[in-house]
Amino acid sequence: MFQNPSQEKIFQILKEAKTIAVVGLSPKEDRTSFQIARLLQNYGYRIIPVNPQHAGSEILGEKVYSDLASVSEKIDIVDIFRRSEFLPDVAADFLKTDAKVYWAQLGLENEQAWEMLHEAKRDDVIMNRCIKIELNKMSA
C-alpha cells in the first residue's frame, strides 16, 4: 500500500533537485499548473513543460515536450498535474526515463500507478502533496 516518504526525505528531494518536468502544464496563467511552474522557476528550478497539446511551443520560456520520453535531459522530479485516472499512463511514461522522483500533486493518488513504480523498483514516489506547500514548509 502506498505511503509518502518522510518529511525529511521530501525536503532532501527538493534540495537535491535541479530540473522538474511539469506534466500537464497549461499555458493559461490562471491555472494552478502554470502558477506552480512559475513558482518553481522563482525557486531556481529548471522546468520542462510536458503537454502533448502544446508540444513544440513554449510555456514560461521553455520548450514544451509531448511526453517524458521525448525529454533528453536528466529529470530530477516529474511533477504531475493530470487527473488521478491518468496517473498509470504517466507512470508508464516515467518508467521509460531515468527520472528520479514521481510526484503527483495535491488531490491526486492512484494505487495502480504506485504498484507499477514499486514493481520497477522506482520507489521515490510522492502523491497527494503540493510541491509549493512543501517548499514553503522547507523555507519556513
In DSSP terms (H or I, runs of 4 or more residues), the helix count works out at 5
H-E string: HEHEEEEHEHEH
- Could you estimate the helical fraction of the residues in percent? 25-40%
> Would you tell me the structural class of the helices and strands?
alpha/beta
Largest sheet: 5 strands, parallel
Which blocks of ≥5 consecutive residues have pLDDT under 50?
A: none
For the biggest β-sheet, the strand order reads 2-1-5-6-7
Describe this structure in words.
The radius of gyration is 14 Å and the shape is globular. The protein has one domain (7-138): NAD(P)-binding Rossmann-like Domain (Rossmann fold, 3-Layer(aba) Sandwich), CATH 3.40.50. It contains five helices and seven strands. The chain has helices at 7-16, 32-42, 87-94, 111-119, 131-138, and strands at residues 19-23, 46-50, 58-59, 62-63, 77-80, 101-104, 125-126. 33% of the residues lie in helices and 17% in strands. The strands form two sheets. It has a five-stranded parallel β-sheet, sandwiched between helices. The chain has a two-stranded antiparallel ribbon with strand order 3-4. The N and C termini lie far apart (31 Å). It has 140 residues and is of the alpha/beta class.
How do the strands and helices of this protein lay out in sequence?
Layout: H1 7-16, E1 19-23, H2 32-42, E2 46-50, E3 58-59, E4 62-63, E5 77-80, H3 87-94, E6 101-104, H4 111-119, E7 125-126, H5 131-138
Parallel strand pairs: 1-2, 1-5, 5-6, 6-7
Antiparallel strand pairs: 3-4
Can you give keywords for this protein?
alpha/beta, 7 strands, globular, five-stranded parallel sheet, two-stranded antiparallel sheet, Rossmann fold, single chain, 140 residues
